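User: Let's play a game. I give you a shape written as tokens, and you guess the letters that built it. Ready? Here's round one.
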């Protein structure tokens, strides 16, 4: 049996969706499947970007001569890795942004529907 949705629980869900991770507010409202799906997709995209960037970073760092100063090597490797993966990073960021907006709008819609 699920708890009735109150204005307080909707505000809590909105804060979680907006400030923590998309989908967490849906879990609080009892929509476990939707919330876990949204959070899972978001985390998958974040880890995909991180893994791709780290892979490119280490590959780029190996190509920089060892006699180069450490800070210069870090900056060069970071720049090369980002250039190599910028389309993936931009695409994942855009999708995560859309998921975040969906999560917030979904809770706002429920708040509006609940107030009527």
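Assistant: Ready! My guess for every position:
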């Amino acid at each position: 049996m699920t708890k009735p949705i109150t204005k307080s629980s909707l505000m809590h869900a909105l804060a979680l969706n907006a400030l923590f991770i998309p989908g967490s507010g849906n879990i609080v409202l009892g929509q476990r499947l939707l919330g876990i799906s949204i959070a899972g997709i978001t985390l998958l995209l974040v880890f995909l970007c991180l893994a791709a960037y780290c892979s490119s970073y280490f590959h780029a760092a190996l190509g920089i001569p060892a006699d180069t100063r450490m800070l210069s090597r870090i900056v060069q490797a970071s720049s090369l890795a980002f250039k190599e993966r910028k389309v993936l990073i931009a695409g994942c960021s855009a999708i995560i942004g859309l998921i975040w907006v969906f999560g917030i709008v979904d809770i706002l819609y429920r708040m509006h529907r609940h107030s009527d």
